[in-house]
Structures are given as C-alpha cells and as structure tokens.
Amino acid sequence: MLGPNSTIVIPRSTLSIEFGLGRRCFLFTCSPTPIHIAATLKHPLSGVCHTIRPFVRKFGTGGGTRRNVFAAELAVTGNCSALPPQVCLKYAAGVEAVAALRREELLYRRELAELAGVAVPQTYGFFTGGTMAAPIACLIMELCMSTEKLKNPSEFCRLAMLTLCKVHAAGVMHNTELDLRHFVMKEKEVFLVDFSGALIHPCGNAHPVLYKDAYSRFNDDDHDQSECQELVNAERGIFPQIVWDIQNKMGNHGRKQSLDS
C-alpha cells in the first residue's frame, strides 16, 4: 500500500520539436518504456506524389502545401527500434484542432490498424502538451515520399480508387472533398491520409464498379441508400475529372508550344 506521502509516477516519453529560430515545444505521452525524441523539422509536405506533381506545378491541378504537416528527422534517446530516423509530423494547436488530430490518431490505431502500411501510413505515437485552454499535439507518422513514378495519371487514379475502397471496407468514410493532397505514395503504392474529419461508416459498397453505367440509377431525387455516395463521387467524378483535366491541359500546353514555335 502507498503511504500518506507517497506519489505515483506515471512513466512518460517526451517529444521536443525544433521549429528553428530558437522556437521549440515539448510534448508528452504515457509509455511503459520512456524515451526522449528530438525532432527537427525539415520542410512542409504538400502530399502530392511524384507521379502527379509535374502536372500540378505546370497546370495547377489541386494540391496546395499544408503548414501543419512536416518531414522531420528524429534523434531518439532510449530503447526504441520501431521509430525510423525520418518521419512525418502532423502538428495541431488549439482545442478543436487537437481534438480532430486525436480522433484521427484513434482511427489509425483502431479501425484502420489492419491497413497500416497497406492503404494508410503507419503511426508511431501521439504526443500532447500545452495547457487546457491552449493545447498542442503531434502525431508521428510514416513518411511517404516515394520517388517512384507511375507511367500515367490514370494508373495513379486507379490505385487511389482502390485505396479509398479499402478504407471504406474497414468502416471509415474520409468525409472531405477529396483531392490530390489526400493521396501520397510509398514506392508504387498509393496511401490515403488526413482523417481529421473522417466518420465511422459501415459501407456496403466498398468495391469499384469500373463501368460507365454502373450508377445510372442515381439522380438528385432518388438515391439508393445502400450505395456509398463518397465512392460514387470518386469513381464517377473526382478521378476521371483529374485525368481529363491533366490530359486536356497537356493537350492545350502542347498546342500552345507548337503555336509559339
């Protein structure tokens, strides 16, 4: 039994983040084997893979840079072989942002656990700090910055659609206006990221249909509730539109070059 002057010490791991210009913050998480992680931010991440990036830069097809997601290098003090030296850090500040990041971390750890390294990045820890009124948090994730390039945007969109279906089959809806920033690549695999607005979703239609009349029964007045509108929108609209936009702009770019010459 504990005596009257005894205290309970909860083992905690610490994370220090070096932002540069002397700015640093300290965060903590409960851990049976405490370690200290020193993270140095390298650059913000846009989330646009190398296959699509040339088209984004030339033609402006979606995918802006986000300022709360960074590539980082880690220096670990303590016994931890699971942490890679280079990771992705997703940072949140403020009550609502921290709550959203905590919800995202729980989805990665629970509903999406079997898809880690398959359709979503692996995660390595969730750290919090600050105060009740001004909390801060950080999620350490697998860094997906593949230099592999697929042959064409159509193949990227096909893999992205399959990844989205895997996430739905796991019972999660992304619940955002999907664009190129939400898909990253590891080697030649496409992963889905940013689940801060995601919902638990028992999806009964987590399979791509891949033919043009598959959703012909859908209209504004009569939706089959057994179908999933996020998958319908992706397969009928988002990915075909991305491919069409890129091919169309490539054609216009080529015609402009020929006229200029």
TrEMBL record:
Q: Tell me the organism's taxonomic lineage.
A: Eukaryota, Fungi, Dikarya, Basidiomycota, Agaricomycotina
Q: Specify the domain of life of the species encoding this protein.
A: Eukaryota
**Name of the protein:** Protein kinase domain-containing protein
